[in-house]
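User: I'm curious whether this sequence folds into something compact or stays loose and floppy. Could you predict its structure so I can see for myself?
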Amino acid sequence: MVNRALPNVVDSSAWLAYFADEPTAGTFAAAIEDLKHLVVPAVCLLEVFKVVARQRGDGAALQAIAVMQQGRVVDLDAPLALSAASLGNTHGLPLADSMVYATARAVGGIVWTQDDDFDGLDGVRYVPKTTTSA
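Assistant: Here's the prediction. I'll summarize afterward.
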């Protein structure tokens, strides 16, 4: 359930699930479509563009980025970088994930993700990827 009073910081994994209409897409839709509260870490633009361009071409990637930029994009500045480094060390997060988590902490928001690196962290709405058997 989306808390409409808090910023929604949507991780790249959630954006990719949403754009690909994966089984978890509906879980992330409310957070993504609540543009008033949507916060987009700049690193997510990089990650999503890279994946979508590789899979479907630059045109599709640019369309995805246009959707993402409807939210408030937060650039990485020096204070946010230092916070990300500290949080990354404390929680064992990879670089991009530490930037997303630091962004959420800076804006007082909730991270929406299906990346298990975030599982168990405060202020995170972790939704495991749905697996299907073939």
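Summary: The helical segments are 12-19, 25-33, 42-56, 58-68, 78-91, 95-107. The longest strand covers residues 38-41.
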